[in-house]
Amino acid sequence: MFLKKLLWMATKNEALVHTTKSYTMYNTTFESKNATKLVFTQTIEAYSFLKKIKHDTIISLYRLNVEKGYLITRRLLPFCSVFKRETKEFNKYIAFKIAQALVFLHDKCGVVHGNIVKDSLFFNEEGRVVLGGFEKSRKSSAFDEDNIMFSNLVEELVGIDASLADFVKNKGLCSDIFFDLDIAFFGYRSFTVDQKLDFISGMKKNKNELIDIHKRRVSWMVLADISSSTSKDFKTLAVDFVLSFDVPDMEEFLPPLFSILDTGIRLYLLRNPEKYIDRITTLDPVVKSLSLGIKCKDKLLREETVVFIKENIGMVSKRQQSEILETMYSYVSDDQGMVLVLRFLRDVRPAFKKTDVVYRILCKYLIQSKAKAQVLDTMEIFYKSFDNFKMTTELLPLLCGYLSNRSVQPAVFSLIEKILSHLKEHKGEIVDKEWGIGSIKNIFKPKSSTHQGIACVEEVETQSVKTPSKPAQDYGESKDLVDGWDEPW
Predict the structure, then answer these.
(1) What are the distances in angstroms from CA 222 to CA 199, 225, 241, 260, 341?
(2) Which of 42, 383, 481, 486 is 20 to 30 A from 155 (CA-CA)?
(3) Quick one: where's region Disordered (predicted)?
């Protein structure tokens, strides 16, 4: 019973990937590692000799079950899912690696392969070609069969007529870029700056010859090499390389790009959205990084961040929009910043139909900001989305405190009249809520920060004349928001 359960679990963890007339291919796991299971339609006893050899291009064995006709190897991809006929130089390199494997089989193992066709080829997760299809392999000293089959395969893959010997001798007549790629995958971090620049330039020039797996690996390799000690120019070059390298999934790379703690890089990303914005579906994964740009002390970076969010607000979910607004409420308290937020709210107003944080931002800014006319103008846009009971108990008393302010008196009267007219249309909501259980429970609780603000409006205004404007303690910016940036934020 226990054995049956184990077999059922093993089957459940296998996913069908590909089928040919010779085998069926499954994704599976082996000893907690990603693996591939190949189940064959004919005997696979010929694979047994592979247990004793090791070659980078020849299929390796995790497990071989001759009786049941299957083997398990490292995770492989079907050749047809990766191969592209237009990458002609890379296809020559594929043929060259197969040729090397065949020479190894002939010279070192005395084995003829006997099945050199596309269905015998795979790619591993690193983008390297893998030779399988050993069902017909056997010991022999004559290799004409392999030579003929190899030439036919090269004709099919590359479209050229070449023998096995010529292909090995001339390194497949392919570009050096793939040999450079092998070296870089092995030791890119040890390259000098000039070597890295040459490598990046070569990759960018030949990107159309690379398969998606290589583009992804190269991009991660270049990004992983960026550190706080990397020069600003090289950081910018590396980021621009990733953005222009046609990686298959830009959404995978955007969070690490936005997490680079460098002001110049962040400004470059914010000012050049055309390099990536059409290749992603959402900005939600980078909202935390964008929020950091709002919190920072660098006013130019903060402004660019807000402008970027405004221009791409449709790519931010409602939940993450609220997170951005909460950040603005908590961390933007200087006059220039508050004006920036007010402009942002006015420009993107259709996006914020029902949100309490907009109400809290505007109440806070009415108390703290010198640009009260702009605050009132923004309130006039949003007041119908505010909670009616809060407008009755909090906002109207707050507004009345500014009726004696000559510079904004007309705007205050106008807004009060509009709010009263709106509340008259919804007076049932006010009465129902006023006598709710929740209201009774809160009668003896301390006043909210907004109520406290109402009580000391005049005091705040008086102090703002005598001393430089500072954030109220409730809204103060926390110190040391982030460590490790290229410069103090």
Answers:
(1) 10, 5, 9, 13, 36
(2) 42
(3) 463-489
| pLDDT given for residue 229 in this prediction | 76
pLDDT for 455 beyond 80: no
Q: For residue 294, give both structure tokens.
A: 């709002």
- Contact 477/333 with Cβ under 8 angstroms? yes
Whether 110 has a pLDDT exceeding 70, the answer reads yes
Alpha-carbon span 323 to 196, nearest angstrom: 39
- Pairwise CA distance, residues 269 & 33, whole Å: 36
Instruction: Specify the pLDDT at position 69.
Output: 97
Crossing angle, helix 232-243 and helix 212-224, to 10 degrees?
Answer: 160
Show Cβ contacts of residue 132 under 8 Å, excluding neighbours closer than 6 positions: 38, 59, 76, 120, 121, 122
Q: Is the pLDDT of residue 22 over 80?
A: yes
The more confidently predicted of residues 5 and 268 is 268
Q: Are 113 and 129 in contact (CB under 8 A)?
A: no
% of the chain with per-residue pLDDT over 90: 75
Taking CA atoms, 380 is separated from 61, 384, 411, 421, 457, in Å, by 72, 8, 9, 13, 20
H helix or E strand, kind and range, residue 415? helix 409-425
Q: Taking the CB of residue 475, how many other CB atoms lie within 10 A of it?
A: 17
Domain range annotation of the chain = 10-77, 318-439+446-472
Helix (H) or strand (E) holding 329: helix 318-331
Q: What distance separates the 2 farthest-apart alpha carbons in the chain? A: 106
- CA end-to-end span of the chain, whole Å? 63
- Tokens matching residue 156: 């099919």
Report the pLDDT value the prediction gives residue 226, as an integer from 0 to 100: 87
Tokens coding 304 = 């660019």
Where are the alpha helices (H) located in 160-313, listed in sequence order? 164-169, 177-187, 193-205, 212-224, 232-243, 250-258, 263-271, 287-295, 299-311
Q: Is residue 91 classed as helix, strand or coil in its secondary structure? A: helix
Q: Which of 155-159, 226-230, 253-257, 335-339 has the lowest mean pLDDT?
A: 226-230
Query: pLDDT tens digits for 339-383?
Result: 999 999 999 986 676 679 999 999 999 999 999 999 999 999 999
To which CATH superfamily is domain 10-77 assigned? Answer: Phosphorylase Kinase; domain 1 (3.30.200.20)
CA separation for the pair 66, 45 (Å, rounded): 6
> In terms of C-beta density within 10 A (0-12 exposed, 13-18 middle, 19 or more buried), how is residue 427 classed?
exposed
